Amino acid sequence: MTSKLEGKVAVITGSGRGIGRAIALKLASEGARIVVNDLDAEPAQETIQAIMDIGGQAVSCVGSIAAPDFADRFIGTAIGEYKGLDIIINNAGYTWDSVIQKMTDEQWYAMLDCHLTAPFRILRAAQPVIRSLSKTEAESGHRNVRKVVNISSVAGLFGNAGQTNYASAKAGIVGMTQTLAKEWGRMNVTVNCVAYGLIKTRLTTSVAGESSANIDGRDIKLGVNPDLMAMMERAIALGRGGTPEEAAGAVYLLCIPESDYVSGQTLMCSGGLTGI
User: Fold this and answer.
1) The whole model's pTM is what?
2) Helix or strand (DSSP H, E) at 180
3) Cα–Cα distance measured from residue 91 to residue 114, given in angstroms and rounded to the nearest whole number
4) Does the residue 53 lie in any domain?
5) 58 lies in which domain range?
């Protein structure tokens, strides 16, 4: 039996940890060659080693996705190392919450830069590459369907108290998805979106305020209040938060050939949670 993604080249932001790492391992297990990204070299290398351990291929492109030069480096790594680009997963992200009257401009722009501007730059950098590859394939009579999967959130679909910045950015990525599905269809590219509910990662499983991460020079507090976590899980039809592997499965569905005629869609991966 052949692997569904044999020979494909996939670039995945935020794939050193959590959901992104699970996506990278899932796609690699089906034959895709991966460009791994993380803020830090160590988790990126750990993901690469995990991919190599299952017989896959991977290289890294370390750095902040919000950096102005990142998009060209990221796409350039795929072309330089693998001479191709077939799958783009805009996954990297974090939250920086506050009610609107206390939210600073820095908080607002940090979320837009990460969740909306960075994917825009990556896709803008990818367009001429994909156009050239698509033209060459068309001239040779070969049809190759490429895939873009953007990551949104139920907060982007329904809003969430304390997340004006995050919810706005995640709503924006839905609009970007629908627009690019129309622009890129002629190049045989499907563009879809996965909106996550509560997925248990380091951002959600630690107790609020007990741990933090340095992101672009900012000390961002991680975690969720345990009472809030319990309340959220009670609102989920399946009665629990999802695992990174389950989250990766939703992205995988939109990368395989069976979804070649699905484009411009937002798939909720939320265990049946339909609002917050």
Assistant:
1) 0.94
2) helix 164-184
3) 10
4) yes
5) 9-269
Q: Which of helix, strand or coil describes residue 249? A: helix
Q: Name all contacts of 46-53 with Cβ < 8 Å and 24+ positions apart.
A: 46/16, 47/15, 47/16, 47/17, 47/21, 50/21, 50/25, 51/24, 51/25
Q: In this structure, is residue 198 part of a structural domain?
A: yes
* Concatenated DSSP letters of 186-216: GGTEEEEEEEE--B-SHHHHSBTTSEEEEET
- What are the strands, taking DSSP E only, across the chain? 9-12, 33-36, 58-60, 87-90, 146-153, 189-196, 211-215, 218-222, 266-269
Lowest average pLDDT, out of 18-22, 223-227, 271-275, goes to 223-227
pLDDT in tens, 235-245: 999 999 999 99
What CATH code is carried by the domain that includes residue 127? 3.40.50.720
Q: Which residues are catalytic?
A: 166
> What digits encode the pLDDT tens for the residues 95-114?
999 999 999 999 999 999 99
Q: What number is the average pLDDT over the span 10-17?
A: 98
Is residue 69 situated within a structural domain?
A: yes
Distance between the two ends of the chain, CA-based, in angstroms?
Answer: 42
Nearest to 133 by CA among 181, 182, 191, 85: 85
Distance CA 76, CA 80 (A): 6
Backbone torsions φ then ψ of 98, nearest 5 degrees: -175, 150
- Eight-state DSSP code of residue 115: I
Residue 3 in any domain: the answer is: no
d(CA 81, CA 36) in angstroms, rounded, equals 12
Domain count, the chain: 1
The dihedral over CA atoms of 56, 61, 64, 66, expressed in degrees to the nearest 10, equals: -100
Which of helix, strand or coil describes residue 185?
A: helix
SS3 label, residue 86? coil
